Amino acid sequence: MSDDRSLQSRRNALKCMAYGGAGTLFALAGGVFTPIELAVAAADKQGAARLGKPLFVQISDTHIGFNKDANPDVNGTLTQTIDLVNGMSEQPALIIHTGDITHLSKPAEFDLAQQMLSGLRTSELHTVPGEHDTTDATVTEYFNRFGKVSDNKGYYSFDHAGVHSWRSSMCCNSNPVASARWARNSSLGCRRLEGTLGQHPHRGLCPHAAVDHL
């Protein structure tokens, strides 16, 4: 790509990111994950395609219900992210939300978030709760909408495209040692591993998420 085209792509990406980070696309080629900002991938589709097959998109910190100066339009931010994902020429097989779906764990916030996320053109949506999703003592609001896959435990694993993935959040877990042991045992013998673990699962090695791979 020429310098002019690269600069233009970056400008387009910055326009897409006006509300904040839209998310991260993870492409898979030769057994190697490569992350790229979702807005950058949308601005430079040819460059993104060279990274490999789009395996999943990771989003976080949507904070539905927040309306302060830092982001007065969180609904618009999530809508923008959904539009970027749905506009991809090759759809990722799954979406992973790594925490803080809502801002205050209110029923109306979860209802709106669930309605908006249902607009994603994907067959799989995986989530882990962040600390803002667990402000109610029993985590009832999160589990009522997103807890089925984990049997309301807050951690679970699944396999996709030859990659074993696990999700665990200490935000709703009273026994973090046991869940860490579970994550380790779940990963034994896996050649390709991707996972999220921590009290703040949406912060870590990659933008907005802790994503480790072997």
Give a description of the structure.
It is built from 7 helices and 9 strands; from the N terminus they run αββααβαβαβαββαββ. It has a single domain, classed as Purple Acid Phosphatase, chain A, domain 2. 32% of the residues lie in helices and 22% in strands. By secondary structure, it is of the alpha/beta class. The strands form 2 sheets. It has a 5-stranded mixed β-sheet with strand order 2-1-3-4-5. Strands 6-7-8-9 form a 4-stranded mixed β-sheet, with helices on one face. It has helices spanning 3-16, 38-43, 45-49, 74-86, 107-117, 140-146, 176-187; strands spanning 24-29, 32-37, 53-59, 94-97, 124-127, 155-160, 163-169, 193-198, 212-213. The two termini are 31 Å apart.
Explain briefly what this protein structure is.
With 214 residues, this protein is an alpha/beta fold. Helix content is 32%, strand content 22%. It contains 7 helices and 9 strands, in the order αββααβαβαβαββαββ.
Query: Within the CATH hierarchy, at the fold level, what is the topology?
Result: Purple Acid Phosphatase, chain A, domain 2
| Count of strand segments | 9
In the CATH hierarchy, the architecture is 4-Layer Sandwich
CATH superfamily: GpdQ, catalytic alpha/beta sandwich domain
Overview features:
Purple Acid Phosphatase, chain A, domain 2, 214 residues, 32% helix, alpha/beta, 7 helices, four-stranded mixed beta sheet, disordered C terminus, 9 strands
Mind sketching the topology for me?
Layout: H1 3-16, E1 24-29, E2 32-37, H2 38-43, H3 45-49, E3 53-59, H4 74-86, E4 94-97, H5 107-117, E5 124-127, H6 140-146, E6 155-160, E7 163-169, H7 176-187, E8 193-198, E9 212-213
Parallel strand pairs: 3-4, 4-5, 7-8
Antiparallel strand pairs: 1-2, 1-3, 6-7, 8-9
